[in-house]
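Standup notes
- DV: blocked on the single-chain target, sequence here:
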Amino acid sequence: MTNRIEPMPSTTKFLFQILPNIILILLIPVNSVFSQGEVYLVLGSDTGIWDGLDVGTHHDFYKFDLYTNPQRNAYKVMDPSFRNQITDSYGQTLKLTWWIMGGNVFRYATNNNVPLNNTMVLYVMKKYHGDAIEHCGDEISLHYHDWVWSDFNGDGHFYWNQSTKFSEFKEDFDLTMAQFLLEENIFPVSFRSGWHYMNNDWQNYIDQLFPFSMHDDYPNVHRDTTEPLDNIYDWSKSSGEFVPFHPSTRNYQLPGDGKGWNNRSIYMASMDTTLMKHVFSQAQKGIDQVVCIWAHLPEDNFLDNIKRINQIVHQVAANFPNVKFRYCTATEAMQRWMKSSDTTKPNLTFTWEQVRDMVDFIINTDEPIFQAQPYVVVKDINENYHLVPCYSTGAYEWKTSQSFEKDVIAKAGVAVTDTVGNLSTMFINFLPDDVYIDNIDSGYSEVRGNWTTSSAASWGVNSRQAVVGPSDSAEARWALGVSQSGYYNIFVQVPKGNNPVDHIIFKVYSDNQIIDSVVLNAPLIPDDWNYVGTFNLKAQSENYIDMIAYNGTQSDQVVAADAIKISALLSERRLTIPQSPIDFGIVSVDDSVTFNLVLKNTGIGNLSVEGINSPNHKITTPATFPLIIHSMSSFVLPVIFHPTVMGSISDTLFIYSNDLLHSNYAVPFTANVQPYFKLVDNEDTLHYKEQGDWRFSVAHAYGATSRFAPLRQTPPASASFTAELKRSGIYDIEEIVPTTRNSAKHALYVLSIAGASVDSFYVDQNLNSGGWVVIGRSFLPSGALVELKVVDSGEKTQDA
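- DV (later): unblocked, structure below
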């Protein structure tokens, strides 16, 4: 017979068991009866660059102050004095997971101050904080926003809109992963999607690649139909518990048959004491918890929110003394939750075999891998990235099913994880990686001249500059250390500056002997890679390049030295178009608009452009073909769009050349074609004229510039806009000026036709400034010269 009593409110239960002739009293701690769970806290950042991001602009320029300024969050969060404040039950300091953004908006950036725009966030994070991340035990992985450049509502205005179709962004997603691996040795083991967006196709795809996802955003749902589209997601059917689950292949929100794991996440500012108590109470019941708590590094309160989370955790933990909590990276948390003691990465081999001119790759591991097949990427000398499929040839052995010509391969890489997320990567360099030498690196030195450090920088955080007096010179040097003998392209980059030297000689040395020299009789183009030449360098020799700046003028000039690039990727002929795709903007039907398209030849031989064509819409050019673009040079090709139908237009312009890989280069273009109108900008030198003292303004509303004139000049200042119309009719006459509060309140506008004044209007230029304002309506004939002149009326007003 066994008798029990209810447990007293303490940590011990008493069990009285009556046996023949004796009474046994057993003292059993509670946690011996009910096993305690543990709380694994994954704190991290969805990490990007906000400074420069404009979703209404296709090509943005990004600034890196968040990562380079010691007073900003990136440096502060890596500081040991901050990390040491955040400790767990074991006295271990905070570890963070950095889900790094890549793709789309960064891929099409205009930056030249990073090796590759698509990986710029990852690059600057590793460059300035890589050592600290390794010291702290942090994890680096991928955060991907599913942006596509599109016109969702068909109104002719394009944005970086969130896509809800995996097929629309899969190519960009694959490219981003490939470049993360080959250029930065990062393959995601944990993953968070941008805006927490997910659908079945995407989740099923990443479940074949990444063991762990942490983008479940239960219970939140959000829709958006107003451009620019963002924050579209649905996690209403998912679980509210912080317990990982295999997503169903038929419904990503529910547990099911998927291979990977997903887990609930919560924004740092949304985590509160009540929810944290629930987490600890579940752990007290024996259910291990994986709690992903995220924020954004650029947020001003990022560090404060981390401290706030730590405070909440410690306060709650005090009420659950038998529940331990641990700060983990995402992968570590999942491995602990899975009760895996395996922290050894797979033993990976990656080799290649050649049959005649073709190369295949062979991959071996010593254990099963999580991925359906090894993740293999090949980069060619034209900087194309190829995701290469594999097939199994035996136990833990695979071979690539696509072959490559050996002479075009630059680099190959492979990534695998075991079934619990231990990662192995390997690389084969057929050609050396590009090398960048900054003025702060040991490979830079100065031979002569009075050099000082300047905050102006085209690469890194500063540059070196020297004032060169008349008939004087200055000289800087970069070492050209190469790991493999062969031909290399050399480029140089300098920042913007005043009075730049316009006579520069580059001398290339090998073992103190000049092997080549290049003379430039024009200033270097700032903030861009200036091609110096292609040189044969030997790996065992002491190679270096000198930049010698001469001043042959009668006044001081300035030379800047910043960075050089050494590249073994030599294409014979390669057409690149940085401005692709083209946005013609708002266009008038039955009129035309011109776009100056820059064609670049980044090959070492001459490129011949044979012609252009658009299959569905008329595009012409005044250029004659064939046109020759010399090596490492560019040509500005005016392309003229002639719309004949109204609406939102999307088409493709094909450029035909002798590019070895892309002889029919496809350039997408868009336009918003509206009913007939005529637009004249202040930059149109044929149709815009000024009288008096006019100056450039720091503000602008349309185009790149605007102009203003001080009032009460003698004679009065004026500016004229002229046009000849193709259609007669009644027209609204509109103007746009920059947003202002101190412009003219009584600006006089005089309308003339064929030299005769027909109407006049007084306009307060401050009213609704920054947008188009109707200043009058009039019948205007076709074929006649129409002039609209804005004049200083001389009436009482504020300065313009």
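- Follow-up: Residues 1-33, 796-800 have pLDDT under 50 and may be disordered.
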